[in-house]
Every structure is written in structure tokens, then in C-alpha cells.
Design brief:
This protein has 217 residues and is of the alpha/beta class. The protein contains five helices and six strands, in the order E-H-E-H-E-H-E-H-E-E-H. It has a single domain (5-85, 125-216), classed as Rossmann fold, CATH 3.40.50.1240. It has a six-stranded mixed β-sheet. Helix 1 (34-47) runs parallel beside helix 2 (61-73) and helix 3 (124-141) packs across helix 4 (153-163).
Length: 217
């Protein structure tokens, strides 16, 4: 079946409970928020009618929790892929928001000396390679059907840019990879024919933002 069509969906996890607003990265103990669990269910509903025969996830708790309803709806267990883990980042555990975050403190500026590698964390090329390994493994497991892999924003976006043969360094503000979004790699045989994108939980994000605005009014 070397020429068969296989789809590997890369699903970003749902919203995380993070009251301190830190960059949690690979830190343990960060679970989905109530909204995040709704997002996971929305993604599961979107994929319920698809020919999904394989589900995988990052080893981090938020990814496992996002994968659970999808795996359950297709009556299977999720396979943990270490290659799907969040990117390593030296700012892990710190606040990095504008104004009160670590990025505004001179003692951290040395870490940002090379945005192309990047110098503050795992090299983009390493992220792309491990994510492609996971995608190809899932493609083989789901040959002729569909697979779902739950991962994280930067790894998914890096893989997409790699698949589309674009430079890997980028402006983080321009990533098209919303919470609980699907970046779908459509394979013809072992090669990627095209990349598709959708946001099955977008209505929940809008609902939450509207409620927050109303509360603050």
C-alpha cells in the first residue's frame, strides 16, 4: 500500500489551568482547565465520524487528558510518544508576559542572543525531526486510514513549517495553531501531499472571551 492515502491529525491540547501565568513547558502537574476539557470533547466530536485507527499523545498530562475522549470514542488506548513532548525552554517556570515577565529583565537577555536556533531552548531543527518521526510512525500504524497525535503548539507549528518547506524560525505571534486545533498531514504513500487546518473548539474560545469581557465591563 505504498501509494495509499493516510491522514495524521496533529491536535494541540486544550486550555491549561495555569493561575500563575508561567511558561509551564515540560513541568509536571499542569492539567486541563474546565474549558480545556470542553475543548477536548469538541475535538473528539469533530473526529468521531472519521476513520481513526490510531491515537497517540505527548507524555505530558495536558496532552494525555486531551487524547482521552478521542481514544475512548474510537474504543482504543492512546499510545504515548516521547517525540511529541513540548519543546525544551530555559524560561520554563517563569512568567514571560509583557511588562512583568522575565523577557524584560536584562539578566535574561543573553538567552535570547540567537532567535534563529533558538538560543533559549531546543533547536527548531531537532523539534522538526522528532515530530516527523512521530508523524511517520503514526502514518505507518494507520496506513490507509487516519491517526490522531496530541502535542503542543510549537512542536506542531514547527512540523507544519518543515512539511511546507518553510524556514523554521518565525514570529510566535503568527502561529496558526489555536487551542484544540487540528493540523492535518495528508499523506500519499510516505510523502505529505498537503496540510489542512481547522479549529473545532473555536466557538468555545469565543464564548469564554465574551464572558470575560462581560464580567470586566
Amino acid at each position: 500500500m505504498s501509494g495509499s492515502k493516510t491522514i495524521v491529525h496533529l491536535l494541540r491540547h486544550g486550555e491549561v489551568h495555569n493561575p500563575d501565568g508561567v511558561l509551564y513547558g515540560r513541568l509536571p502537574g499542569y492539567t486541563l482547565s474546565d474549558l480545556g476539557r470542553e475543548m477536548a470533547l469538541a475535538a473528539a466530536e469533530k473526529l468521531a465520524g472519521r476513520d481513526v485507527v490510531h491515537v497517540g499523545c505527548s507524555p505530558l498530562q495536558r496532552a494525555r487528558e486531551t487524547a482521552e475522549p478521542i481514544a475512548a470514542s474510537h474504543r482504543m488506548d492512546a499510545t504515548v510518544y516521547d517525540d511529541l513532548i513540548e519543546a525544551d525552554n530555559s524560561f520554563e517556570g517563569l512568567r514571560v508576559g509583557v511588562g512583568d515577565g522575565a523577557l524584560g529583565r536584562p539578566r535574561y537577555w543573553w538567552r535570547m542572543r540567537d532567535p534563529f536556533k533558538p538560543s533559549w531552548g531546543e533547536p527548531y531543527v531537532d523539534i522538526a525531526r522528532r515530530m516527523m518521526r512521530a508523524a511517520q510512525a503514526a502514518r505507518e500504524a494507520a496506513e490507509g486510514s487516519e491517526a490522531v497525535l496530541v502535542s503542543h503548539q510549537l512542536p506542531i507549528w514547527t512540523l507544519r513549517r518543515f512539511a511546507e518547506r518553510k524556514r523554521l524560525w518565525h514570529d510566535p505571534r503568527r502561529r496558526e495553531c489555536g487551542l484544540a486545533s487540528l493540523t492535518s498531514l495528508v499523506f500519499e504513500g510516505t510523502g505529505i501531499e498537503r496540510v489542512e487546518y481547522s479549529e473545532p473548539a473555536a466557538y468555545l474560545v469565543l464564548k469564554s472571551e465574551t464572558a470575560k469581557r462581560a464580567k470586566g465591563a
